[in-house]
Amino acid sequence: MNELMFYTNPQSRGRIAHWMLEETGVPYETVWLEFGPAMKSAEYLALNPMGKVPALKHGAALITETAAICAYLADRFPEKNLIPPVNHPARADYYRWLFFAAGPLELAVTAKALGWQVPEGKSGFVGFGSYDATIDTLEKALATGPYICGDQFTAADVYVGSQLGWGMMFGTIEKRPLFSDYVARVYARPAALNAVRLNEDYLQSRQS
User: Fold this and answer.
1) What angle, rounded to 10 degrees, do the helices at 14-24 and 155-170 form?
2) What is the pLDDT along the chain (208 residues), one digit of tens a residue?
3) CATH for 4-81 (3.40.640.10, 3.90.550.10, 3.20.20.70, 3.40.30.10)
């Protein structure tokens, strides 16, 4: 039995964490959960009271929230070079943009998708300020590339790349050339391709 137990659904944010697990190259066991009763069962709610995926068990450790799973795996397996060294300036960029994508970016995109309007003069009440400011800020961060922390691919790219990829796919983030180039670059990684294959294979098996 693998020490890493990964709970997910192929039509969820679990795909991001799945990609991160593939980047580590560490063996893990996948527990596929359907939406509905399976995620609301007493057994699963004991792991995640929110009744949502993904979740990750690593021995006695339990991690939920996709960005937290990415950060945990990068910390836990530093030899995989998915996080800048502690004393390197890029470490600050890593934390900054990982949390930016999990906070302001996701909220700004969600607000746009659901048609939420921030009242005039009230932008200071929301963490993202405005959708345009959030998207422009991320574009500037990626301008020096090729990755969010410069030359090193990190767990932050897994999360930022996924957010941009999904947003452009569903039309909640505009397809700026810099975004498209960045997403194409990170999505071409073997780990990203393998995570897609695993999820699509499972979806296909459900239809058989």
Assistant:
1) 140
2) 469 999 999 999 999 999 999 999 999 999 999 999 999 999 999 999 999 999 999 999 999 999 999 999 999 999 999 999 999 999 999 999 999 999 999 999 999 999 988 888 888 888 888 999 999 999 999 999 899 999 999 999 999 999 999 999 999 999 999 999 999 999 999 999 999 999 999 999 988 7
3) 3.40.30.10
DSSP string, the chain: --SEEEEE-TTSTHHHHHHHHHHHT---EEEE--TTTTTTSHHHHTT-TT--S-EEEETTEEEESHHHHHHHHHHH-GGG--S--TTSTHHHHHHHHHHHIIIIIHHHHHHHHHT--PPTT-GGGSTT--HHHHHHHHHHHHTT-SBTBBTB--HHHHHHHHHHHHHHHHTSS---HHHHHHHHHHHTSHHHHHHHHHHHHHHHHHH-
CATH entry, 90-190, from 1.20.1330.10, 1.10.3720.10, 2.30.110.10, 1.20.1050.10:
1.20.1050.10
Question: CA 66, CA 45: separation in Å to the nearest integer?
Answer: 17
Cβ atoms 198, 138 nearer than 8 A:
no
Is residue 44 within 8 A of residue 9, CB to CB? The reply is no
